[in-house]
Amino acid sequence: MANKVVKATNEELQQVYNNIPKAYDRANRFISFNQDVKWRADLVKTILKFCERPKLVLDVAGGKGELSYTFKKVFKGNAKYEIILSDYAENMLKMALIEDDKVLCSFDALPFREKMFDVVMSSFALHAADNIEDVIREITRVSRKIVGFIAMGKPDSWIKRVYLSIYLRYIMPYIAALAGAKSRDFKYIYYIYERVPTNSFHKKIFEKYIDIKVYEERALNLFYFVVGFPKG
């Protein structure tokens, strides 16, 4: 696990920012301290380090397809490839930023055969799972090469947990309101944070199913960044 995240270049980030749709997810912008676009680009770059020519890519719980959109902007391979965008919410898929195939499904019961995809990826979604192990088992089941994801966790440090709890409950909704968003729409993030386990708990599950090549915790350990090969 000595590998490091592959950083997206300024030019690659510019490609994403210059064409970013107005519908791009603002909620993740606030909770990631304005780093969501960069982190998605870093995730794509790191995935491509271990799978240079993917032919079939699955975006799990992809919402409107922000990660898929970033993948298309960052990936410069000449080989043809296909992205399938999946999400549990039909309205999200209807508002998708990409034109690729879409599948309505839950991330803990993916309707795909084993080892179907070269890349299985996800961003800012897995923390919504009722049982994270079920989701990790599924994404590794359908991947034949690499998995990569970013999601919200919880620091093992109680001091950081308290600080982040205050930020997410009181400060972030206020910042969202100043930016023109409805503060009540962001309060659910605090409740998700309160119920998710600590990062050390998550990591034990990841290691059970994934040969981890990159593991990082970011933003006061509020998020985990994982890339690796499915075991078995």
Automatic annotation (TrEMBL):
<dbReference type="Pfam" id="PF01209">
    <property type="entry name" value="Ubie_methyltran"/>
</dbReference>
<dbReference type="GO" id="GO:0008168">
    <property type="term" value="F:methyltransferase activity"/>
</dbReference>
<keyword id="KW-0489">Methyltransferase</keyword>
<dbReference type="InterPro" id="IPR023576">
    <property type="entry name" value="UbiE/COQ5_MeTrFase_CS"/>
</dbReference>
<dbReference type="GO" id="GO:0032259">
    <property type="term" value="P:methylation"/>
</dbReference>
<protein>
    <submittedName>
        <fullName>UbiE/COQ5 methyltransferase</fullName>
    </submittedName>
</protein>
<dbReference type="InterPro" id="IPR029063">
    <property type="entry name" value="SAM-dependent_MTases_sf"/>
</dbReference>
<keyword id="KW-0949">S-adenosyl-L-methionine</keyword>
<keyword id="KW-0808">Transferase</keyword>
